[in-house]
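Researcher: Quick sanity check before group meeting.
Model: Go ahead. Protein one:
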Amino acid sequence: MRSIILLFILCGLLGCGNPAKDTRVDHTWTIATLKGPSSMGMIRLIDSLSRADHPGMRIELLNEPMQVRKMMLDGSADYAILPTTMAAILYNKGLDYRLIAIPVWGTLYLFGSDTAITRWDDLRNKRVYAMARGMTPDVLFRHLLQKNGITPDTDVTLDYSFPTHIDLANAVAAGQAELAVISEPLVSLVMHRNSNVRPILDLNREWDRLQGIPMAQTAFLGSAEALEDSGQVERLIAAYERSTRWVNQYPDSAAALIVKHNILPDAEVARKSIPGSNLNFVRAGRIRSEVAEYLEVFYHMNPDIIGGKMPDEDFIY
């Protein structure tokens, strides 16, 4: 039996099957996604599209969320994957993209070479390197510190010397940063390069323990124009969901494709990073309360983090 992904390419994108409002067969639809868990979960779809003669859809692999944001702002991304908090900001600013699903459920870890750290209180008087001041990882880590009785910038020093997550990962691997907050798959990549580095705190579990809700960290969005073609949207959802299940079920095969498409340089690193990436494609319409509760935590910390207000109910597709 042909996989649903190939059916999506050969049938869905070429306009056969159920009629849609706007088949647009002459249009190449674009998904803007990030190198990392977002693209790892859809790697089977990425590979199938790369081998199709006329797929009707292309995937743009980017390094930073701001690059995805730029494509959304200039209208060159029909679908986009980026942090849920950034998705809320853009929606609240009037950008007409709606939340289709949550494909990644928390990838953040405190890790490093300081073996004396075993609990939150051990972070007192330590220096922790973080990335992107004011962005989701930074705000989330500050929130967890406060919830555990530690005052950021007073009890612990947060250092933003390294401008990107890649720079920070390289610094940890080179022994230039003893403690850092970084996400998978960079955690596995750094540990592969430096055997003295280890995970210290799983921030995803810590969030779940304290908040009682999972970390709906990453958003899969569709533009208003793309969402007009409901048939295509449903086929894309099915393909992405099936790809994510396949990655979790067959990590060795998935790792080979992750390397093939230059998301990670090493198959062993890719395989080891899959469990910690918490890949689970869930339609947003089924988890409205979880998404709202996740955003509410950030809203109460600082409304600007999600664009000054909670998104209205139309945010979710």
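Researcher: Fine. The other one?
Model: Protein two, sequence then structure:
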Amino acid sequence: MTGYLYEKDLRQMKFTILTSTRHDEAVRAIAGRLGISDAKLRMVLIRRFDMSLLENLESRWQMGQEHADNDSDPAAKDLGCELFTRFVPLVETETMRSICDETKAMIGDGSSRDEAIARGKARVREAVLS
């Protein structure tokens, strides 16, 4: 007797999608932006995303680069506040809002912008990997 498709382990199919040419380029770009290895990002994507999100990952990444965080401040753009919540949903909205607000507060309190952004990016990376 055959089982239902949704009962099957889809990890191999998801991995195949992520290693196709266009998707692999997007994965490498996202991993580079986050400062993590390609393999770690692939594991996160396989675990969190469904097939539909994975199939559209490359186009979501391109659209996010063009349209994400255009109306907000430079700190939000550097952290990818909208990019990693709306276009490539790797971080929960509330978590990202907290990271962005704390980073802006650090900049406002006199911390160097580069240091605040580096700490914010580290928190985004931690949120993605958790």
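Researcher: One line on it for the slide.
Model: The chain is about 70% helix and 0% strand.
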